[in-house]
Amino acid sequence: MVRPVHLMLLVTVVLWALNLTVTRYILQHGFQPLAYAVVRYGLASAIFIAIAVLAERTLRIARRDLGLVALAALFLWLNQIAFVYALNSTSASTIALLLGATPVFAALIGLALGLERMSRRFWGASVVSFAGVGLVAAGAGGGVSASRLGILLGILTAATWAGYSVAIAPLMARYSATRISAVVLSLGWVAIAATGGTHAADQDYGVSAWVWVLLAFATLGPLVLTNVLWFRALHGIGPSRATLIANLQPFVAAVFALVLLSERMTALQVAGGVLIGGGILLARRPARKTPPPAGE
User: Fold this and answer.
1) CB 169 within 8 A of CB 234
2) Where are the beta strands (DSSP E) in 169-275?
3) Is 260 a member of any domain?
């Protein structure tokens, strides 16, 4: 039986998946990568600050947590720089498949920090997933995406999002998602603006109305609305089941890119996507902590 919580989770996955196609379109139709990141995260930060102040009357973070907040903001900054440049030079379907390796990167980072203990099964799953990443990269060289730098940036996007997820997970146990989003996104935006301020100043904002509509969607949907839906879904069916369904997002995103952007995918990329997904399922085990939203 389909429950409202399942519909919320489905909407979340679809919005995350659409974000890659929408961002790729925006970057192909007038926006510079860093200018797009500055505008999008500036709007999202303002919205989250307004919501947090109205709902909680404070943005206070305890001193003991400031290091984690700074680390999460650092990973978010790196993630968005890699994300926009990856999509500027590489097809959305390729980046979508590469993002499927995010859970494996998160587990490896947790292992490096002493937060996880991995079984032989996990190491086998990691080999399978990274073999899939290799096939996706090799297949992209066949004509869909000629940029090797784009492939590397796509892998960096997955790795930095995993780092962000690991850094922010302990904070989610002590603060609301709205407050953490307001603080971390704002700090991340400051770093993005410092990096891309010149690009934003030089940007020609006379793009089509359709591009502005899509930018508003990319901000309000995959960044703001999914934050609310995701945590309600986690509360309704638990993190283990929710994240298992959310792992479908990269593959749904690849389908959207193929259909809406008329991209093509090679047999190697399809095989790579299957291996990445197989590795995730092989490594799957009950989650011990509530992960943050996985959208870009």
Assistant:
1) no
2) none
3) yes
Which position has the token pair 């792992």? 247
3-state secondary structure 8-51: HHHHHHHHHHHHHHHHHHHHHCCCCHHHHHHHHHHHHHHHHHHH
Region 42-63: mean pLDDT is 94
Rounded to whole angstroms, how far apart are CA atoms 117 and 225?
A: 34
Determine the Cα–Cα distance for residues 198 and 112; give it in Å rounded to an integer: 36
In a domain, 11, yes or no: yes
State the residue range of the domain holding 262: 4-283
* Each residue's pLDDT tens digit, 251-275: 888 888 888 988 877 787 778 778 7
Q: What is the spatial distance between Cα 138 and Cα 94, in angstroms, rounded to a whole number?
A: 11
Q: How far is CA 273 from the centre of its chain?
A: 17
Residue (of 291, 232, 280) closest to 100 by Cα position: 280
| Whole-number Å distance between alpha carbons of 41 and 121 | 38
Rounded distance, CA 16 to CA 56, Å?
27
| Cβ-proximal residues to 186 (8 Å cutoff; 6+ apart), any chain | 45, 48, 49
Q: Is residue 296 part of a domain?
A: no
What's the number of domains the chain is made of?
1
Q: Which one is predicted more confidently, 95 or 239?
A: 95
Looking at the domain assignment, is residue 294 inside a domain? no
